[in-house]
Amino acid sequence: MSGRGKPAGRKRKAQTNLTENEEKRQRDEAPSDHDVPEFIQLLDSDKSENTNKRAVWLVGDSHIRWAGERFHSRHRDTFKNFTISWDGQSGLRVEDLHPVIQLGMIKGRTPEIIFLHVGGNNITSTNQCKTIRIIKSELQYLFDIFPNSLIVWVFILPRLSWTREVVDNSYQKKMNSKRQKINRTISNYVLSFARGRAILIESIDLSTPGMFHVDKVHLSDVGNELFIFSIGEAIASFLGSDIKFIKC
């Protein structure tokens, strides 16, 4: 009798191994998260939000990035009628802008209004005429590929310091003058389009150092709050009327 028990045990063990192997095969064949193609929704800041909300897209350098960080951490219920996408990249230069705009087209709902803040990282190292030429080209591209959107030029914000090196005050004045010339030229250009708009956040200036981070380049928490508030004012003004230029 004992001899008959051993084959039965081997049979049960074989069946167990077969079941385990079958389960492993099914797990291996089942689609994983990595197998499912991911569709990029660059213009949709929150998948859970109502898709009927009006879309706003902010593109640019680290000022956009850090304002976006502040917005998401403290302002989730702000701008309830809009989905806001903060597409900011630290160190972004005007020559890096084109692929960012192209990525913004991928699987994204066309925004009603686009804000652009870029150029500050070119002030000290790029010829002024070249900077202006590239920005104009990218603005024209935006008008072409988003024919139903308002395009807003956000005046390049000032900096308490344009270099990490110790320099005399004349250098700072020269760089700030260059910034102002670019802003004037680009604002005039964008306002020449029917769908062009511009915003000057004049409350953030060199006379209010508390608006700036200790690095003298980026904005402080207070500065970012004001930046966000100004964007909200611009959205309300530009989408609610025919106003083309505002100061905050």
From TrEMBL:
Gene3D superfamilies: SGNH hydrolase. SUPFAM superfamilies: SGNH hydrolase (SSF52266). Residues 1-35 are annotated as: Disordered. Residues 21-35 have a biased composition (Basic and acidic residues). It comes from the Eukaryota. This is SGNH hydrolase-type esterase domain-containing protein.
